[in-house]
Amino acid sequence: MKNTFTFLLMSIGLFTYAQNIPMYVGTYTGEDSQGIFLYNFNVKTGELNNRRLAVEAVNPSFLTFSKDKKFLYAVSESNEGSSVNAYKVNNNGSLTLINKVNSKGKGPCHVQLNKKGDKAVVSNYGGGNFAIFNINKDGSLQEAFQVINHNIETKKAHAHSAKFLNSNLFVADLGRDFLAHYIEEQGNFTLNEKYKMETGAGPRHFEITKNGKYIYVINELNSTVTTLKKDKNSYKNIQNISTLSSDFIGKSYCADIHLSKNEKFVYGSNRGENSIAVFKRNIKNGRLQKVQNISVNGNWPRNFTLSPNGEFLLVANQKSKNISVYKINKSSGKLSFLNSIKAPTPVYLLF
Q1: Global pTM?
Q2: Three-state DSSP class for 233?
Q3: Which listed residue, of 182, 224, 274, 314, carries a Cα 20 to 30 Å from 192's Cα?
Q4: In which residue ranges of the chain is pLDDT below 70?
Q5: Angular region, 43: left φ>0, alpha ψ -120 to 50, beta rest
Q6: Among residues 161, 150, 157, 203, which one has the least CA distance to residue 178?
């Protein structure tokens, strides 16, 4: 009987442990934050707990993993010199700095790896450029081998995000209102085309469907999502749709955008309206239909993320310093609020 009881307790413990997965939180550092934090997220209940500091860092505002999750990369917006940092992920979830290299521009705000995991691209908002780095097998970063400047005499560029798609590289330039499309040729990237957004739109982040046929760009300054559809070796703008409620009055600025795992829904964050906009996606023609605007239960939603099982959406509210958790209705895509916890100036969430 004693052995049975012990086995039962062990089973419950293992089940509870299996329900919890790690989530890293990038922050702006200051009085309440010292770097990158680590939480446990319960994939059954949607609860966050057991917060601890994974590593001290300066303004690690955007994070990304290597494909095997053995390494984590973070930008660092520092007055002493902007950098991108490579970390080893330890068995207990803590992070150990491997090395850091200069981001080659002011205000790095985004880092992304290619599918193979041997290259990283960093977008420098303040510098108006982006830099591409080779990654060594031990996870360390080499110095940038290519830096591309979007600034022109008549207009300041603001590179805000970049993503690889096979031999393609796309870069959202908020300052010059375009999504740039580069193609890799003999180890370097050359410009293929610039896809113009509306004047003053301010493209910030974007999502690409798995087959590369559609790109969804969220525009910070005019609160819209632009849908681009592949046309031979190029893309064409087929739709612009507002992220805001029809009755909203005031100023609002978009931040982040994500596709659901099944690609049936698109989500976007509004800073000002302080909401998440939910769109139903037509799988056949790629067009979007807004189905919900829901409060983030906080102030100034920056980046947000979907849990790996696709059942929850979590929002980093920068100014109110909290993380809000929502349950996703898998048939409608709509969100329902579950809970919120206080968090030190959260701006990025990473599973």
Answers
A1: 0.94
A2: coil
A3: 224
A4: 1-17
A5: alpha
A6: 203
